[in-house]
């Protein structure tokens, strides 16, 4: 499960059942034009007149991915960074009296500022129009990004600005290209966007084409386009014209002269610098067999969104062929208000067969179909999470066993050891193992592999790799010939990911402040590391680089400070320079809450957990209710010094008279290996025990909390945690909301579920303990307090079937609960109207069940939003 987050690694990101609902912004804000009046109008309509007491009018936790921000998303989805001081040493987080003082100061400054849910989820957003997919051009002269339209933030446009200075400019929009025609997406394209956690329309992806930094490629409404940066301005060119059969996953060759894409299940090649026609490289694609696209498991759970890779010289493709014929078919009823659409989806649930994925090298010489040579991949290689080429033209794969306890890096060449040919093909490229990772819980896939030409070992460029063998993720050098390893980094906290490398320099991101902060470092090949210039404590930084690792595009955020883009020149060693940025609504600075660091301990009595508390700001004396926000699942963290999109929601709830408590339990990301493996063979155990322990400690840490009125809100895995917490005789919660909850893990997909729980049945066909223990359907009789379950009927991640099974079990035992269903909505409940309705519903539920001191205004939904079943 993936979740997109500010730090979500491109593999994921992120992702444990990660919800777009609890999503973090992935990039920084860029200047917008002529929005000041629109902002003022929105504030005037949404906010009541200020008074000495907050006027509560209608006005979740953002998962932070714990791995590579370049690849997942997720998985999705990571964040909170606490950079060090000038010496590079992290400073301790404030706690105790200092933290409480900070919270009190914030209360005085912001309690009188009203905030409505309408404004929290209005367009434009409080944090400004944030960008996504920010990139440096290959030559480092441009910064490109996708930015929401001024007239509709659900529509993305392609923008760029010169790095040498100058105003950003819009390159192209969907309206300009389509001439007002409605954007069309096939079901396959919609599912691909869902895998990437993209809920907006318009131009949803792009890439630089060629090394000169003058041409960009983008897909739109089933066809492909180029936009060229010329002296006369940007010029768009349509490359294909067959919207009924879309071209998917296009990529340019390294020199920009050719274009590859997938169409009707086959790979195609099209010249860009001549007038030649496109040709099919493969011809055997069918309804269940396709080339060059990532299968569901790779895209959803392994952070691989691609199924083919160009060789360095552009003469060959390393391509995967996927056969889904043995994968079970799930019939999903996408229930809309006016229709029901039946969708057949190949969905490998736990214990069922996966798609068969084979690897091939396609020779692009000649005409017609390409000559295809198979790679002799071992039969035990259930998953192929990563692939690519070394600079000498040798293809490599990372493959994993089904239990994901072994990951192997293998290179493939002609000849070699016997016995590995594919289907008896004597021409198959044979594999040679370079290195491997083993873990008795599971191996985390990483994106740090690269060659270091400046350091040669056994006559070959050294390989950079990351490993958790020491107990925390660190970078190592590997001899490609012998497999010998040498440690490169020795950080006290885990490395997050490699940013780039050039010469004797490697740039990487690493956790700080017990995973609540992220800092950027450069290390030479002798292991001497230093923090990059211009960093300060309690921030979160991610970076992307130009082609030669001389310039970084840094995304910086902090709690209450939306992400912003900076350029940093690594050769001069100077501090990063801010790019012109989109200014947040001035209201944000007035309402942004200051977190108090709360030191709580896990249920084991010794492991410190990361937690924030936000005091109520209604100004009333006495005890107050608390809303707890947590995710609880693997691969994600939510408590950190980064921007979170739930910041304004927390501020709104403070004004409604709630305290808000956020928590990362054991098993979550950005900590050492022992901490992150807490979910091994158990869901609903350690994280539930930690949650209960922390909530019981909270009233001892902070005065004014009514321990009888503590609620919980979670989405996706957090939704599972919400429901599981209520189905427990020892629950400390008075009420909970669970969104898109997995309720029976045998229904969830193979790679995610089996990674943590193993197979659902043993050799005798009997259910295994981890699945029985985590099944919520069998616990429904334990519900004693109000519970609301929310789900979208078109969710293809956590299928709607999960909630239907739970509902049926409640009804069979006559156990009352509440439920809200969103017709036609997927995992993230996209759309401003639906999103506002969702949070109004949650707000009204907590107002009823936790008896908030400040009641909703007459404009806020009340009983009309609740389901017939009430407590």
UniProtKB/TrEMBL annotation:
GO terms for molecular function: dipeptidyl-peptidase activity; serine-type peptidase activity. Residues 222-557 form the Dipeptidylpeptidase IV N-terminal domain. GO terms for biological process: proteolysis. It holds the Pfam family DPPIV_N. Residues 1-36 form the signal peptide. Residues 41-64, 90-114 have a biased composition (Low complexity). Residues 650-851 form the Peptidase S9 prolyl oligopeptidase catalytic domain. The keyword Signal applies. InterPro entries: AB_hydrolase_fold, Peptidase_S9_cat, Peptidase_S9B_N, Serine_Prot_S9B/DPPIV. The keyword Signal applies. Keywords: Signal. Residues 41-119, 235-256, 852-871 are annotated as: Disordered. This is Uncharacterized protein.
């Amino acid at each position: 499960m993936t979740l997109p987050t500010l730090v979500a690694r491109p593999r994921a990101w992120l992702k444990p059942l990660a919800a777009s609902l609890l999503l973090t912004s992935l990039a920084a804000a860029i200047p917008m034009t002529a929005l000041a009046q629109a902002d003022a109008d929105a504030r005037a309509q949404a906010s009541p007149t200020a008074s000495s007491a907050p006027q509560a009018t209608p006005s979740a936790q953002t998962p932070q991915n714990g791995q590579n921000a370049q690849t997942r998303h997720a998985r999705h989805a990571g964040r909170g960074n606490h950079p060090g001081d000038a010496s590079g040493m992290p400073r301790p987080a404030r706690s105790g009296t200092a933290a409480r003082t900070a919270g009190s100061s914030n209360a005085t400054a912001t309690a009188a500022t009203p905030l409505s849910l309408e404004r929290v989820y209005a367009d434009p957003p409080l944090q400004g129009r944030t960008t996504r997919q920010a990139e440096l051009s290959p030559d480092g002269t441009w910064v490109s990004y996708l930015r929401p339209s001024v007239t509709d933030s659900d529509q993305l446009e392609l923008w760029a600005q010169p790095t040498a200075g100058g105003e950003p400019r819009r390159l192209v929009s969907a309206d300009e290209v389509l001439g007002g025609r409605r954007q069309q997406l096939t079901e396959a394209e919609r599912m691909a966007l869902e895998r990437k956690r993209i809920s907006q329309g318009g131009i949803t992806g792009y890439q630089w084409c060629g090394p000169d930094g003058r041409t960009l490629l983008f897909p739109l409404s089933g066809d492909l386009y180029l936009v060229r940066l010329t002296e006369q301005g940007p010029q768009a060119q349509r490359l294909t014209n067959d919207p009924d059969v879309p071209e998917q996953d296009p990529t340019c060759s390294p020199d920009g002269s050719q274009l590859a894409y997938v169409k009707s299940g086959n790979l195609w090649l099209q010249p860009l610098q001549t007038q030649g026609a496109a040709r099919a490289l493969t011809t055997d694609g069918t309804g269940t067999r396709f080339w060059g696209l990532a299968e569901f498991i790779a895209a959803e759970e392994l952070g691989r969104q691609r199924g083919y890779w160009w060789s360095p010289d552009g003469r060959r493709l390393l391509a995967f062929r996927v056969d889904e014929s043995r994968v079970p078919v799930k019939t999903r009823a996408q229930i809309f208000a006016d229709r029901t659409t039946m969708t057949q989806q190949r969905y490998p649930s736990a214990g069922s067969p996966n798609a068969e994925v084979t690897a091939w090298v396609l020779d692009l010489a000649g005409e017609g179909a390409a000559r295809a040579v198979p790679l002799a991949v071992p039969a035990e290689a259930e998953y192929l999470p990563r692939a690519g080429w070394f600079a000498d033209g040798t293809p490599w794969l990372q493959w994993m066993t089904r239990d994901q306890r072994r990951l192997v890096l293998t290179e493939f060449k002609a000849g070699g050891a016997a016995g590995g040919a594919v289907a008896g093909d004597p021409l198959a490229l044979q594999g040679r193992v370079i290195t491997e990772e083993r873990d008795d819980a599971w191996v985390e896939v990483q994106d740090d592999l690269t060659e270091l030409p400046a350091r040669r070992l056994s006559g070959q460029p050294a390989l950079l790799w990351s490993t958790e063998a020491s107990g925390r993720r660190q970078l190592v050098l590997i001899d490609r010939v012998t497999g010998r390893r040498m440690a490169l980094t020795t950080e006290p906290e885990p490395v997050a990911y490699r940013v780039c490398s050039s010469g004797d320099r490697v740039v990487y991101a690493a956790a700080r402040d017990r995973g609540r902060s992220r800092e950027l470092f450069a290390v030479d090949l002798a292991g001497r590391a230093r923090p990059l210039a211009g960093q300060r404590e309690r921030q979160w930084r991610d970076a992307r680089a130009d082609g030669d690792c001389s310039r970084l595009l840094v995304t910086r955020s902090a709690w209450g400070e939306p992400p912003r883009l900076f350029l940093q020149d690594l050769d001069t060693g100077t501090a990063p320079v801010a790019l012109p940025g989109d200014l947040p609504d001035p209201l944000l600075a007035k309402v942004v809450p200051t977190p108090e660091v709360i030191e709580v301990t896990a249920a084991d009595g010794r492991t410190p957990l990361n937690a924030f508390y936000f005091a109520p700001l209604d100004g009333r004396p006495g005890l107050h209710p608390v809303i707890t926000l947590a995710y609880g699942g693997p691969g994600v963290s939510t408590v950190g010094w980064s921007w979170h999109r739930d910041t304004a929601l927390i501020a709104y709830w403070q004004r409604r008279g709630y305290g808000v408590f956020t928590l990362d339990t054991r098993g979550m990301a950005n900590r050492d290996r022992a901490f992150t493996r807490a979910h091994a063979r158990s869901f609903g155990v350690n994280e539930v025990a930690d949650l209960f322990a922390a909530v019981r400690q909270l009233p001892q840490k902070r005065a004014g909390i009514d321990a009888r009125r503590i609620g919980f809100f979670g989405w996706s895995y957090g939704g599972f945690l919400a429901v599981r917490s209520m189905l427990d005789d020892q629950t400390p919660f008075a009420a909970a909301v669970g969104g898109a909850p997995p309720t029976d893990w045998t229904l969830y997909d193979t790679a995610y579920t089996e990674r943590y729980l193993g197979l659902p049945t043993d050799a005798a066909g009997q259910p295994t303990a981890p699945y029985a223990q985590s099944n919520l359907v069998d616990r429904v009789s334990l519900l004693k307090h109000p519970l609301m379950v929310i789900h979208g009927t078109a969710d293809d991640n956590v299928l709607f079937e999960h909630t239907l099974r739970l509902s049926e079990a409640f009804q069979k035992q006559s156990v009352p609960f509440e439920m809200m269903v969103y017709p036609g909505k997927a995992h993230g409940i996209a759309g401003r109207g639906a999103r506002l309705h969702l949070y109004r519903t949650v707000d009204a539920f907590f107002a009823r069940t936790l008896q908030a001191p400040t009641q909703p205004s007459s404009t806020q939904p009340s009983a009309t939003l609740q389901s017939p079943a009430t407590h």
